[in-house]
Amino acid sequence: MRPTSSIISLDQVSIGYGTGRKDKKLVQNLDLTVSERQLIVLVGPNGVGKSTLLRTIAGLQKPLCGSIQLFNKPTNNLNPKMLAHYVSVVLTSQIDTGYVTASELIAMGRLPHTGWLGTFSSLDRQKVSSAVKQTKVDHLLDKPVYQLSDGERQKIMIARALAQDTPIMILDEPTTHLDITNQMNIIQLLRSLVKTQNKCIILATHNIELALQVSDRMWLMHHGTMEDGTPEDLVLNGALAQAMSTDLAPFNPERGTFQVQHSSTYPIVLKGTGIRAHWTQRALERAGYYVQNEGAVAVEIADEDDWLIYHNNQFIRSVDSIGSLLYQLSQLYSSSSLSHPDV
Predict the structure, then answer these.
(1) Closest Cα to residue 341, out of 269, 287, 270?
(2) Residues linked to residue 223 through DSSP beta bridges, in sequence order
(3) What angle, rounded to 10 degrees, do the helices at 275-286 and 322-334 form?
(4) What is the torsional sign of CA 53, 258, 241, 37?
(5) Helix (H, G, I), strand (E, B) or coil at 116
(6) Which of 9, 174, 269, 281 is disulfide-compatible with 298, CB 3.0–4.6 A?
(7) 235-265: pLDDT as tens digits
(8) What residue ranges define each of the domains in the chain, with the CATH number in brackets?
(9) Which residues sit opposite 268 in a β-bridge?
């Protein structure tokens, strides 16, 4: 295995907009060193500067102060073609593609390598073919880009970046318009590129739960600051919860998820373990019950595919689904002196 080496460095970098007295600094004094073979996920609330940071690292926007180097070369000394040899970028902003087909747009990823005539070599064709295969967009190649859905267009843009074949890839919300299957396919592809081709990939996402599962390193931006560490460290030190939790959906560090806070007023006992108990408790809490150790109404998860309902230790009935369970509980509450939630 090759030793990792520094390919990106930020020295006292401040990012934002404007010049001179009218500077709007979003984050100041960033000192970062990035090596190959890393999948870095950038997270944070809206408006904190995630896209600005990505654009600044990619050389598309100048830092307000400080310096950025790619492979020990200052980005302000690199012309666009030189930058395109180092960094491929997939941004959220739409580009005007006119009547260009998906195949032609993907092939544009090779322009930094083809010379001024744009003549494709066998290597160029191989890189384009590989990008198409990896992103599974064969069926889209003959379509004009303007006819593609948002998700299809996103995959074509990722394919173009792959065809460009740079050591650094920067992606802003690359899975925003994709369904869950395509999200996982793209993320797994990016992870594979990091491990097998020694790439450094930096991507921004709002999907914190996915980021926790796949990132080697996490950058957490929040109110003018940035935390840098493994995702597990940012969970354990409380930084992630502090930055991303809300009163309605606090972050649960044990589960690594954000949990919607339900109004739970009605006590119920739940007996059972395992996956059925887990999903039964979630359904009960969503319906307005809170689970405790003692109470007049109890639900027991039986060995078979049924749920048993008790009232004051007396068996009431069994049901064969969580939907039926919630309905029968509402009937039980409405027919007794107990107040019942809406289910």
Answers:
(1) 287
(2) none
(3) 40
(4) negative
(5) coil
(6) 269
(7) 999 999 888 877 777 888 877 877 776 776 7
(8) 6-249 (3.40.50.300), 266-334 (3.40.30)
(9) 291
Structure tokens at 275: 């996956």
**Four-CA torsion 290, 291, 297, 301, nearest 10 degrees:** 130
Q: In Å, how far from its chain's centre is CA 91?
A: 14
Question: Would you say how long the chain is, in residues?
Answer: 343
- With beta carbons less than 8 A apart as the criterion, state whether 43 and 218 touch: yes
Task: Pull the structure tokens for residue 139.
Answer: 């069926």
Mean pLDDT of the 273-278 span = 92
- Helix boundaries (H) for 136-250: 150-164, 180-197, 208-214, 231-236, 239-244
| Crossing angle for the helix pair 122-135 and 180-197, to the nearest 10 degrees | 140
Least confident of 178-182, 217-221, 273-277, 320-324: 178-182
Contact (CB, 8 A) for 174 and 154: yes
**Alpha-carbon dihedral 134, 136, 141, 144, rounded to 10 degrees:** -110
Question: Could you identify the residue written with the tokens 């010049």?
Answer: 19
